[in-house]
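#struct-help
A.M.: can someone run this one for me? Single chain, 317 residues.
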Amino acid sequence: MYPSRGFADLVLAGVSLLCLISPRAAGQLCGDCDQSGAIGITDALRASQIAVGLLIETPADLAYCDVDSTGSVLVLDALRIAQRAVGLPSSLTCPSAPTPIATSVTLVPPLSGDILIDHVLIDPESDPCSILVEVSLDGGSSFPLLATDAPGGDGRTGLSSSPAGTAHSYAWDSLGDLGPVATSNVVIRISPSDPQPGTPGSYVPSFIDNRPPGSVSWSLDIHPRILDITPGGQGCILCHAGGSPAAGLDLETYFGLMQGSASGAVVVPGDPGGSRIVCKLSGSAGCGQQMPLGGTPWTPTQVDEMRDWITQGALDN
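D.P.: on it. Structure tokens below:
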């Protein structure tokens, strides 16, 4: 026989009352509702019997209760039906379980290749946790990449937690995900679950350098030094920038550098010996005044970086 509407209302009223008046039954029912958001039909009927003493048999057809044919009664639907049946306030919900928190996310140097990421998992119930590790390349505005595992570390599943926090390490294959380049503003976000989603933690923007040894970058190595006009800096743009740069050489941009000066090119890609800027920065004989004029000279190591950058093609990298 199909259950009547009054019968179903009473059953579902018992489901809702369960969260309020029966700690024993609440442990059986409410302890799961915050995990999946749904209560199995048969369990709901049995729990109602525990809560309000209904002497019932499970009906052969549960279509009335299972309104969306998913095999479950949604918790909020049960509460609304209970309100209609016995006048319970509509705001009643099952108590939510504590969720895990990821904190103390820290990248362990060297920040290249396989990078260890330390983190701490906090959970009041000490449940085993899984983590989702995501990568941002824009300082944390978006996280388009899922981190690839590297050998070592504690992995991403079956991680212990505790109310005081349990320390773990995750090994990240940054070279595989980012490629053989240098990248700034990298942020790592770790989101825990037990399996209920918890509170993520992240680390401050970092500089990850996966370039081959000896590689030199315009944007990361050469240009910042040209722009450095702080006290004791070695920048060139006090003179070589603006509407009328000295000698017609604008060093504020890569384009300006490659345009050269009024006397011609100052950088010849692949030929540091034929690049006048190297001669001027090193103060070699026959090159006139050493640059930057009136500023702190570049060290031999820094001049060698300029040579290496030009040898590598003087790329806008």
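A.M.: thanks! The longest strand covers residues 182-193.
D.P.: also worth noting: Residues 5-86 form one domain.
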